[in-house]
Amino acid sequence: MKLLKNILFIGLFSLLFFSANAQDYRFHNIYFKLFINYIEWPQNDVQNQFVIGVLGDSQVIHPLERLSKKMKAKGKQIVIKRFATIQDLSYCHMLFLPKNESEWLEVIRKRFSDTSMLVITEKAGLAHQGSGINFIKVNGQWRFEVNTESIHNSSLRISDYLLKIASKV
Fold this sequence. Notes:
Blueprint: H1 2-16, H2 28-38, E1 39-40, E2 49-55, H3 61-70, E3 72-73, E4 76-83, E5 94-97, H4 105-111, E6 118-121, E7 133-138, E8 141-146, H5 148-153, E9 157-158, H6 160-165, E10 167-168
Parallel strand pairs: 2-4, 2-5, 5-6, 6-7, 8-10
Antiparallel strand pairs: 1-9, 3-4, 7-8
């Protein structure tokens, strides 16, 4: 039954991506839900909230705020934090790094190397540079790449199910 549910879910979000616009972040919510459900953070995470951060200005914040009102992550309330600058950045479970802030990837990787923060980017080539997950457009549709080494180094566990629908780098 769960397999059928997952197959239907994949089919549904595949249909939704037929005309994804580069700045249309409504579709990212589907992926964020998948990441929350199919990636495991370490058991020693004692925070009572699941924090999703966004660095800089990005329209992804609005759909994420709607998502945070509709679901919980691992039984925890989802909190969306916008960090105006790299200096403001603090630990979060997931950090979305928009294209216009992508120059900060290496700084973020070094600064948070001993944490279980999942860094999500949206610029070609950033998965190869150490982003855990990178959104890409393939034939006009949103897809994502997974850097399994980066995920492993962050002490995160990604499900086989998620790896099957991702491009691995």
